[in-house]
Write a structure and sequence with these properties.
- Helix content is 77%, strand content 4%.
- It has a two-stranded antiparallel sheet with strand order 1-2.
- The model has no long low-confidence stretch (mean pLDDT 83).
- The termini are far apart.
- The chain is mainly alpha-helical.
Length: 273
């Protein structure tokens, strides 16, 4: 019996990271890229360099938290989408409370913490739809992805990278480079991607939600054992959704990389001069 419980614990831990791990990895990558880019920007332009992009990036970041709070029925106690003159340096915030006895609201902490990734990526896609419709047509290719099974996961990720490379070539095509719409989108995309990454408080919320998600999966697996039920279809559906979210998040990573390269270039120009 002890070995069975230990096996269920291990399986539940694996399933938790299997359905959330890719999103967490995206959050970590965006955090590393933004942190390094901010270092270069502040060295080259001081805090004013951050404010140049904050006017659009910060409100979209906070909207991600705000919308997820409403979706998971958290009570909003206060929020500010953008505060340029904040004395504590916090450009925006969303304060919320939740019922600690509610499974749904506790799981919501994970998605509220991840909110900026959803809102930032959605804003990048919407902007592409409005300003670069030909490139947006490539985004639709992501929707053609087949839901991944465990033994197909690696090949699906390879496909995602191939689609992202194709999208990148489409965005930076010769036709776009001489288009005003492209440069408008490029400026907006850099501003949005500059503030997608999760703060320390965001990560705390993600951690709280992750613990609840693990507990929920553990309970589901225990029920499965007792009732001899089969919930494998549920986990497959969640994994399929996760794949789509990762695919679209690659757009955010691409523009975060571009911002890092540009900020490093500006830093070294300032340093060398």
């Amino acid at each position: 019996m002890e070995n069975t419980l230990l096996m269920i614990f291990r399986v539940s831990l694996f399933e938790t990271f299997y359905v959330t791990g890719s999103l967490i990895l995206v959050g970590i990558i965006l955090g590393v890229l933004e942190s390094r880019a901010n270092f270069y920007v502040q060295k080259a332009f001081s805090r004013k360099g951050i404010l140049v992009t904050a006017w659009i990036g910060t409100p979209i970041h906070e909207l991600g938290h705000l919308l997820m709070c409403y979706l998971f029925r958290h009570k909003i106690s206060g929020f500010k989408l953008f505060d340029r003159k904040a004395k504590d340096g916090v450009l925006g915030y969303v304060n919320h409370n939740w019922n600690s006895k509610s499974l749904y609201q506790n799981i919501g902490n994970f998605f509220i913490g991840m909110g900026p990734i959803f809102s930032g990526t959605a804003a990048l896609i919407l902007g592409m739809h409005l300003l670069l419709p030909d490139s947006f047509a490539r985004v639709v290719d992501y929707l053609a992805l087949e839901p991944a099974q465990p033994n197909q996961y690696i090949s699906t990720m390879v496909t995602i990278f191939a689609l992202t490379a194709s999208l990148f070539k489409s965005i930076f095509s010769p036709e776009n480079l001489i288009s005003l719409n492209f440069w408008i989108y490029f400026v907006l995309a850099i501003g949005i991607s500059s503030h997608i990454a999760l703060s320390k408080e965001d990560l705390k919320g993600v951690g709280r939600g992750l613990i609840t998600i693990f507990t929920f999966i553990l309970l589901v697996n225990l029920v499965t054992l007792v009732l001899n039920a089969d919930f494998s279809g549920l986990f497959a559906d969640i994994l399929a959704l996760n794949i789509y979210l990762v695919a679209f998040s690659m757009i955010s990573i691409v523009f975060s990389l571009i911002r890092l390269v540009l900020s490093a270039f500006a830093y070294y120009l300032a340093y060398l001069s």
